[in-house]
Amino acid sequence: MASLAPTTPWTAGAKDDYRDCPVTTLKVDMNTERLIIANAVMAVVTLALGGIAALLIALTRWQAIHLLPAVWFYRLLTLHGIDMLIAWIVFFEMAGLHFGSTILLNARHAAPKLAWTGFIMMTVGGLMANAVVLFDPNSNVMFSAYVPMKAHPLFYLSYILFAVGALITVITFFINIVVAKREGRFSGSLPLVVFGLMTAAILATYTLLEGAAAIVPAFFWSLGILKTYDPGIYRNFFWGFGHPAQQVNLAAMVSIWYALAQMTVGIRPVNEKFSRLAFILYLFFINLGSAHHLLVDPGLSFAWKAVNTSYAMYLAVLGSMMHAFSIPAALEIALRAKGYRKGLFGWLRNAPWGEPGFSALVLSMFLFGWIGGVTGVTIGTEQINMLVHNTLRLPGHFHATVVSGTTLAFMGFTYYVIPLIFRKELKLKSWAKWQPYIFGFGMLLTSMGMIVSGLQGVARRNWDITFAGVVPGTVEISLAVFGVGAILAVIGGIMYVTIVLTSILTGPRLEASNLLLLTGTHNPIIDSTKLTDHQMEDKQNQPKGALVLVFAFLVWFAIYYFTNWWLLGRTWFIR
Amino acid sequence: MLAPEKNWWKPMGRMEKSWLTVAFVWCVFLTVMMPLWYFYGKQNVPTETYKTSPADYGAKVNAFVEQYTIGEDTVNGVTLPVVAAPPGSDVYIRASTWQWYPILQLEKGEEYRLHISSLDLQHGFSLQPVNINLQVIPGYDYVATITPTSSGEFTIVCNEYCFVGHHTMVGKVIVTEEK
Ligand code: HEM
Ligand SMILES: [Cu+2]
Ligand SMILES: [Cu+2]
Predict the structure, then answer these.
(1) B38 and B116, same structural domain?
(2) What is the pLDDT of residues A336-389, one digit of tens each?
(3) Residue A539: its pLDDT value, please?
(4) Side-chain half-sphere of A63: how many Cα atoms within 13 Å?
(5) Which of A68, A190, A467 is the best mutation test for B, with the most CBs of B within 10 A?
């Protein structure tokens, strides 16, 4: 049985500054604690900045309101992309890496100085990027900054600082794991969550290096040292960084899913081999994914694109489809083992829907898979991409993945980090109960509105679509759905930031006494260690409901996929 | 979240195996669809590309416009030449901030070799409402062999951000009925 106790006891001393977590009985290294707090705070701050921008640009794209002037729209859109996709997500992931490589392994932080260096570089880089975009008239170039569009040199420098800082943090993750292993801090293999995070970290290393290959020449080019920079090559490198970066988010998110499932329901992974294999698929078959962004670029052959999307992508898709079964199945077994065995879905009805970690988990999985995943695979199909490239369907897709999926899962996880790491009582608990639903539902409408508008040809990154004069009236409706959803999602975002800030800024420091926030006093992590092999294999506990769910998913997937081929077949002939 | 025992390498259950098989077959199918469509479908992403330079490409467009102009029309208040080349020939479109030049006139059901390139930044060729979207990159002459299957007036929208006038970058393609 998996155990919570470290094999090598800690000795209190100069090196080992730690405390015992009363809830999980894990050791918490104080350096790690401070690092997590710092990274999490920066994550929330940048989320708030990006969120303000989100509201303003969404109210501009909602054509009926059309709030901002053009320059400010483009400026804040650039800011939104940077603060959200880069800063918020990566800061949070860095907190996750510190957590996974020490606390979950009962280990100490072996390189705190290095980790702080990384953090400071990221912070300076992130804030500098904001300042440059806001104050330099030429740096509203979008986060992708396509050459030969030239931003201020400091723009590129801020990217480099941020990326190097992140790379340093990733390196400390590996150092920690090696040291923990050598010091015998944990018994057996790496826990699944840490294994998933390691996948993310390996991908991140590769990703950040490719990011350097794109941005460093751009920096010299903006200084005039490099005379020309081929835009096609820039795109190749940029997306060689930008796309795998999304797989880092994916692997980190799935790791958090497993963690949330264990923390709120007390699951045991159904089959460690199955889940680990799925992570390994991410590692090996995602690296060539830059092609997704270049599917309708000149200069690349069909074979190159098809191989790079399918060989590289569909086995990674397989990995996601495996997790899509394995997590619901683990939830189902754990709930059935508690006695909720009625029918196919009795376990779901009796799940802890009032626990924010659980609702965030389920909504995140559902929206990520059913909307984000399905649209992603479809638009990543070489030919179908012609219908989608740079239309609003694209942001519609990734607001279902990296926002409804990753962001929502991270938000849900934060609520547990506050009592366990910040050691503050979670305030506004009733808000926390509703927040995942409001944010999730808002984001559902936002991405659906974007997708349906994009299907009708509405371009992304566009201040005013009426110039084109070809906008059908139905677009007004889908943009209104999008706008209402955006407002809801922003309300959900404001709730999140308010809950976090109120909790960490008010009240005394308080050791956590309970893992669950709203739904009881039992400790699901301890429960999970008591799930026996016998219970896992009991006929009555088999995950039939989860299997039905994944097959329903496949049917929906096929419908959406074929509808798109049908749509493609109706357009002009082209080759 | 907890370290498992060493012996986690266990055979998969029946359900995992069946889902894994079905999911894998689906992934293979997804992969096969692309080459199938490549050989049998009528809508494929163009691949023909030539290296060019803004000066060379600009000169080609000017020669093309000079040779085949048949009239004038306006897009968003700007007057541009309307150019009609015979079916089967090479036709050119030039992207630059913030204009698509010239206005093309094509004939329904006929094939054309449509060249697209940019003189300055990257732009996005988005033909509406047929919804065909291609990336336009300076230095690359991208050739799409197209056959319009519907007639009327079509709009080219720029859907790659190209600084603050981006949304005003709109062009026109006219398709006449088959003769
Ligand atoms: C409150 C929730 C949010 C709303 C209402 C929102 C809304 C929007 C809107 C209106 C756009 C512009 C679409 C366009 O014109 O092309 C956009 C773009 C984008 N959003 Fe969000 N967003 C939200 C949250 C997020 C989050 C949490 C992330 C990342 C984790 C994110 C990542 C992005 C990215 C990467 C872009 C593309 C920027 C670009 O085209 O350069 N958004 N969002
Ligand atoms: Cu343009
Ligand atoms: Cu543009």
Answers:
(1) no
(2) 999 999 999 999 999 999 999 999 999 999 999 999 999 999 998 999 999 999
(3) 87
(4) 19
(5) A467
Closest chain B CA to residue A194? B1
| B109 and B29 in a common domain | no
Q: Look at phi and psi of residue A563 and say left if phi exceeds 0, alpha if psi is from -120 to 50, else beta.
A: alpha
DSSP, res A391:
B
Place of tokens 């359900």: B15
**CA end-to-end distance (rounded Å), chain B:** 71
Domain hosting residue A484, numbered range: 352-531
Q: For chain B, what is the domain count?
A: 2
The pLDDT tens digits for A327-343 are 999 999 999 999 999 99
- Alpha helices by DSSP H, listed for B42-86, are 54-68
Angle at A250 between CA A245 and CA A254, to 5 degrees: 150
Report the range of poorest mean pLDDT among A270-274, A312-316, A493-497. Answer: A312-316
CB atoms within 10 A of CB B5: 12
How many Cβ atoms from other residues are within 10 Å of residue A223's Cβ?
A: 11
Closest-approaching ligand to the CA atom of A146: 1
Structural domains in chain A (count): 1
Helix axis angle for A112-135 and A89-101, nearest 10°, is 170
**How many angstroms away from the CA of A557 is the closest CA of chain B?**
10
The CB-side HSE value for B15 (13 A sphere, CA atoms) comes to 23
DSSP string, A499-535: HHHHHHHSS-------S-SSS-S--HHHHHHH--HHH
Which residues in chain A are contacts of B10 at CB distance < 8 A? 271-273
Residue nearest to atom 37 of ligand 1 (CA): A81
Residue A44 is assigned to a structural domain of this protein: no
B119 is a domain residue: yes
Please state the rounded mean pLDDT for residues A17-42: 92
Residue B43 has pLDDT above 80, yes or no: yes
Q: How confident is the model at residue A100 (pLDDT cuts 50, 70, 90)?
A: very high
Calpha distance A192→A261 (Å, rounded) = 12
Return the number of other C-beta atoms located less than 10 Å from residue A447's C-beta.
28
**Are residues B123 and B141 both part of a single domain?**
yes
Q: Domain residues for B113?
A: 47-176
Domain containing residue B51: CATH number: 2.60.40.420
CATH number, domain with residue A383 = 1.20.210.10
CB contact under 8 A, A302 and B44: yes
- Confidence category of residue A3, pLDDT binned at 50, 70, 90: very low
Measured from the Cβ of residue A7, the count of other Cβ atoms closer than 10 Å reads: 13
**Closest by alpha carbon to B85, among B45, B49, B108, B112?**
B112
Do B35 and B29 touch, CB atoms closer than 8 A? no
Co-location of B25 and B51 in the same domain: no
Cβ–Cβ under 8 Å, residues A496 and A428:
no
Instruction: Report yes or no on A182 lying in a domain.
Output: no
Whether the pLDDT of residue A397 is over 90: the answer is yes
* Surface of A (478-517) touching B: CB under 8 A: none
What is the tens place of the pLDDT at every residue in A201-254? 999 998 898 888 899 999 999 999 999 999 999 999 899 888 888 889 999 999
Number of neighbouring beta carbons within 10 Å of residue A282: 26
Pairing of strands B49-51, B140-147: antiparallel
CA–CA distance, A402 with A245 (Å, rounded to integer): 11
The tokens of A539 are what? Answer: 């006929």
